[in-house]
Design brief:
- The protein is of the alpha/beta class.
- The protein has a domain at 12-53 and 68-76 and 107-179 and 262-340: FAD/NAD(P)-binding domain (3-Layer(bba) Sandwich), CATH 3.50.50.
- 36% of the residues lie in helices and 29% in strands.
- The chain contains 12 helices and 19 strands.
- Strand 10 (142-147) and strand 11 (152-155) form a beta hairpin.
- The longest helix has 30 residues, at 311-340.
- The radius of gyration is 21 Å and the shape is globular.
Length: 370
């Protein structure tokens, strides 16, 4: 009996985006027989950036991609998540081991370290840096793509993994899906000092300030305000908190600042063009599920393509499986953003009484594998 041919033997797949989502797709499709090409608008791999928090379902995704050890080697294991008021008085706290019931550790790392592990995991798949699509035209079972470096090609599947400001979404779906969340954020890096391996957030009136270590020498800080208050800048945010927030910000370097945006679409595919990760369903970082959802997207896409002879059938099954889970994350994120935005007097009473229970309820639907 002849050996079974790989599920995607000879199929041409273009992945647009070499960030977390795109590289996860490349890794997940490895060994399925497809001819994979990757283009990325950035001129080179990112070496900067800030920190990233990876809850246990994200680490499980890395495990299923075969990259858990590569990432955890330089990551910090986070044992507790603590929510406090603007003066640092604890409202509630959660054990990550209890929250995730042995599914995987919860960790934090530098985003560049995560991307480095994903790049290594892409193996010999070539990435064309500084390249982006200029046109994407579905044509029957194929897609015609013209790139801004003058090249063009026809593909059996185009995967748009190019973030909230997706070029693929703009070209194939029109100006749809992207909206402002109403928040503006700052991401900062500072020397770690004696920062414990804890995720901790302080909630002020219309502001939050988050801290967690991402390595032996670095700590990540994140702060956000309502967009209407962003004109006051980082100094305006810091002024709403007691010590040690002003002191730690004074020692930090801003890695990024900008508005937070969301993406919501009625469908994630147009013919053989599919959006994944933030290109399809970006949210605010309240639940820290961006990377987790990207890993899960990649794993489910590989699974349906492996089992389904028809790409259109595979994409329909993919969306049927992913949409309920993703939409639940989006809904829970908006609820958490709404709770955080309550008047502090009401919010703090609520969180002291029910914060831990609500926190567990937010993540319970993510315990099962996707």
């Amino acid at each position: 009996m002849s050996a079974r041919r790989p599920a995607l033997d000879g199929r041409r797949i273009l992945v647009v985006g070499a960030g977390v989502a795109g590289l996860a797709v490349v890794r997940a499709l490895h060994g399925l027989g497809a001819q994979i090409e990757v283009v990325e608008r950035a001129p080179a791999p990112a070496t900067g950036g800030a920190g990233i928090f990876l809850p246990a379902n994200a680490v499980r995704g890395l495990r299923l991609l075969g990259l858990e050890d590569a990432v955890l080697g330089s990551a910090v294991r986070i044992g507790r998540q603590v929510v406090a008021d603007h003066r640092g008085r604890v409202l509630y706290q959660v054990s990550t081991d209890t929250l995730w019931q042995g599914i995987a550790p919860t960790v934090a790392t530098h985003r560049a370290a995560l991307l480095g592990a994903l790049l290594d995991g892409a193996g010999d798949v070539k990435i064309r840096w500084g390249t982006s699509p200029e046109s994407i035209v579905p044509d029957g079972p194929e897609v015609g793509v013209a790139l801004d470096d003058g090249a063009s090609g026809r593909y059996d599947l185009v995967v748009g993994a190019d973030g909230a400001h997706s070029t693929v979404r703009r070209l194939a779906f029109g100006d749809a899906g992207l909206r402002h969340s109403g928040l503006h954020a700052w991401r900062l890096l500072a020397p770690r000092g004696d920062t414990e391996p804890v995720w901790s957030v302080r909630l002020g009136r219309g502001v939050s300030f988050l801290t967690f270590p991402i390595g032996p020498d670095l700590v990540y800080h994140y702060g956000d305000v309502h967009a209407d208050d962003a004109a006051a800048g980082l100094d305006g945010l810091v002024a709403r908190f007691g010590a040690p927030v002003p002191e730690v910000v004074a020692a930090a370097t801003v890695a990024h600042s900008g508005p937070l945006e969301e993406v919501s679409l009625a469908s994630w595919s147009r013919g053989p063009v599919l959006l994944v990760g933030d290109a399809a369903h970006a949210t605010t970082p309240n639940m820290a599920q961006g990377a987790a959802m990207a890993f899960e997207d990649a794993l489910v896409l590989a699974d349906v393509l492996r089992r389904t002879a028809s790409i259109p059938d595979a994409l329909r099954e993919y969306e049927e499986r992913r949409r309920p889970r993703v939409e639940r994350v989006q809904q829970q994120t908006r609820r958490r953003d709404g709770t955080r935005g309550l008047h502090p007097a009401a919010r703090d009473v609520l969180l002291r009484a029910a914060g831990e229970r609500l926190f567990h309820a937010n993540y319970r639907g993510l315990h099962a594998a996707p």
